[in-house]
């Protein structure tokens, strides 16, 4: 932890996080509709919901693991994979699709070496597709976090993505 620029005295070890999730979940045991709330908290604490986290929750709430896993898979805002620092969403709504959204998807896959739904090995980006992000008039569009990019040229993607690496260097 010495190289960390943030000074925080919390124990961020995996073990400590799982313990905290277990303790929190135990407080919700037997309360109706608590599973989703607990999963939200757990995702906030751990960052995502791998099987070991789901097991801790199932034990603490005393519900079957299959029930926990079922809820995690059902809701798209729960993730079983680690998330990247930034989320890229390429629009594949009708307007964007016909104006080249698919080319953007292919280019991002090549540039970042990720498949849809995956996170880059350096945990910089999570790559997703969306149905419509409200910029149909200027298709094809994509977003990175809250920033919407319109009329995206696949050949300019590299420059766009580089900015997110440069930002980090400037800090
Ligand atoms: S279809 Fe892509 S922004 Fe609406």
From TrEMBL:
Binding site for [2Fe-2S] cluster: 91, 96, 132, 136
Biological classification of the source: Bacteria, Bacillati, Bacillota, Clostridia, Lachnospirales
Cofactors (names): [2Fe-2S] cluster
Official protein name in the record: Hydrogenase
Domain of life: Bacteria
Coiled coil: none
Matches recorded under InterPro entries: NADP_DH_HndA-like (IPR028431), NuoE-like (IPR002023), NuoE_dom (IPR042128), NuoE_N (IPR041921), Thioredoxin-like_sf (IPR036249)
Keywords from the named record: 2Fe-2S, Iron, Iron-sulfur, Metal-binding
Cofactor note: Binds 1 [2Fe-2S] cluster.
One GO MF term: oxidoreductase activity
Source species: Enterocloster citroniae
Family indicated by similarity: Belongs to the complex I 24 kDa subunit family.
């Amino acid at each position: 932890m010495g190289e960390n620029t943030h000074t925080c005295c919390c124990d961020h070890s995996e073990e400590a996080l799982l313990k905290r999730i277990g303790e929190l979940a135990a407080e919700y045991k037997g309360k109706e509709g608590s599973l989703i709330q607990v999963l939200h908290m757990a995702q906030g604490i751990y960052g995502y919901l791998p099987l070991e986290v789901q097991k801790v929750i199932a034990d603490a709430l005393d519900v079957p693991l299959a029930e926990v896993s079922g809820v995690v898979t059902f809701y798209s805002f729960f993730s079983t994979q680690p998330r990247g620092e930034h989320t890229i969403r390429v629009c594949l709504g009708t307007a964007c699709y016909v104006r080249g959204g698919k080319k953007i998807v292919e280019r991002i896959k090549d540039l970042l070496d990720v498949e849809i739904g995956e996170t880059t090995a350096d945990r910089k980006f999570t790559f997703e597709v969306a149905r419509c992000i409200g910029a149909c008039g200027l298709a094809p569009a994509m977003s990175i976090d809250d920033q919407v990019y319109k009329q995206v040229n696949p050949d300019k993607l590299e420059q766009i993505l580089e900015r997110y690496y440069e930002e980090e260097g400037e800090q």
